[in-house]
Description:
The structure is a single chain. By secondary structure, the chain is α+β, with helices and mostly antiparallel strands. 42% of the residues lie in helices and 19% in strands. It has five helices and five strands. The chain has helices at residues 2-24, 62-85, 131-138, 144-149, 162-174, and strands spanning 87-95, 98-107, 113-116, 125-130, 154-157. Helix 2 crosses helix 5 (162-174). The termini are far apart.
Amino acid sequence: MWSQLLMDQMARSGDQHRKMWKRSGHQPKIKAEDGPLAGQFEVLGSVPEPAMPQPLELSELESFSVFEDIRLHIREVGAQLVKKVNAIFQLDITKDGKIILQWTIDLKNGSGDMYSGPARLPADTVFTIPEPVFMELVLGKMNPQKAFLAGKFKVSGKVLLSQKLERVFKDWAKF
């Protein structure tokens, strides 16, 4: 008896749902030619472009020209430096705590190389240096050991190799 009552209730409920769909004008299929009618939508106008920070131009960085100059120096005397240094250095130049420029100085392979970007082979030493600090270091205006101990830049990897890189910069400055 209960099962018969339940079946009757479900049947009536199904009929009510079908009637509701018919009354609401539900169209189960949409045809490709159906589209909005003319004047059905309002044109709101153009959306303003979001304010995006302008990318930093490499040529705007003071350190970029220094890196280019050091790169030329390494091309000229790289083979000699590879014999003396035997290390790969990655320099991450920062601004406001974010890396804005990466350079790799490879004085371990071939006749030496310096290129923009992260080290292609594992770097022996990685420096993370704010650009103004890098400029003072490379131009000899700041003592690297004192700057490191004062926390002005970070070094990871083989820290003692940083003394060899200091020599490279000093040789470049004489050049």
